[in-house]
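Marked as duplicate of an earlier ticket. Keeping the data here for the record.
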Amino acid sequence: MIFQQFQTPYLNIEHWPIESGQCWAVIGRNGSGKKHLAQALLDQQNLAENKDLHFSLISFEQQQEFYESELKNDDTDFIDRLDPGTTVRSLLSASEDEIQSLKFLNLESILDRGYRLLSNGESRKALLAQALLQKPNYLILDEPYDSLDKQSEKDLSEFFSTLVQQKDIQLIFLLNDLNEINEWHSHLAILEKGEMIAQGKREEILDNQDLHALLDFDANTLPRWPEALNDFKVSNPVVALNKAKVSYSEAVIFEDIDLHIKPGEHTLLTGPNGAGKSTLLHLITGDHPQSYGNDINVLGFKRGSGESIWQLKKQIGIVSPELHRNHRVSGSALEITLSGFFDSIGLYEAATPLQVDHAKQWLALVGLEHKSSTSFKALAYGEQRLVLIARALVKQPALLICDEPTQGLDQINRHRFLYFLEHLSSQEKTTVVMASHRDDEQLSLFKHHIKL
């Protein structure tokens, strides 16, 4: 048995015994302290008397850390081609037999691709494979299913169900969604504001009505919806792609895609990890190098006609994993929200008092008004995502591009965001194009459904 007792500025856990053979899931809302609990568990590796004790962690913060290390080693500016960075094969440093033992992760198509070129779900698979190959005694899984497609989630869950039977490894899950609890989770704990307010066998905790109340969303508790500061003139169509194609060497991501979106024709993109959902959205926003080799018209601007990228982006709001991981600048939650008015990563212009007041209203809508002066980097991953949602919506754009927007959000905040989409739809000023893996995000407001 490992007895866990954590007394830190962020945690107050006096009693949490973890016994051999148990599989724990710790449930907590965004900002509940799961990030600090993960770090505290890792610290046990250094404090343990048994130096053979080995902990591994899979988390969004870990993905971000590795991505930033790859950026530091990017040699693209010094060679005559794009530097793909560390390939997945090099990252794993494993034999073919070891890689085959993880075939359920479907790594074959990404083994020789650079980590920075992977989709968010693909990069999560790569780091999970690396952790499993290290054969840790304790594997800490912070939101392991988030950003994975449905088949990958199913395969991974089946793998975990066999892994928990092994005596040489113990799994600890950090989750924010009760729907991800499985029958092979023997024990649950509830984390709230750094304290473990309940713990015990799975069935006992799931019967606790206070837990369900803690995770319920009530739209009636939200502040008043702010009036839009801008009144964008919406063109028809909002987006038009004709025979769109993206390929790398001989690998075709997609081709012959026709997409015509009129104002108010909200569009949903679905498909497995690596199918091209993010790539298609990047074509629309102009963030993909092959945007100008395609026949694309966005908000009345034809790509390659001399338009400024800023002319377009002042009417577009974006929430995506790529935007999230590129927010490596310093700044408070309020400053990051304000940057949405200027379409910049970081705030470099003075905001007006009206814009500041408006940004504060949006932070209140996402439940973070009390953290407006907190550094963006100091926030938990889910809280950072909420700030980026506020940043995208602060100008209530003509076009809202969402790529897995609820990644990292707990049940309350996921439903909060979906409520935002419903409200935007009722106002008939913003057209939404969204990529998602989740069935519960296939809202009736979506007029088009594209499966890649």
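See parent ticket for discussion. The chain has two domains: 2-216, 221-451.
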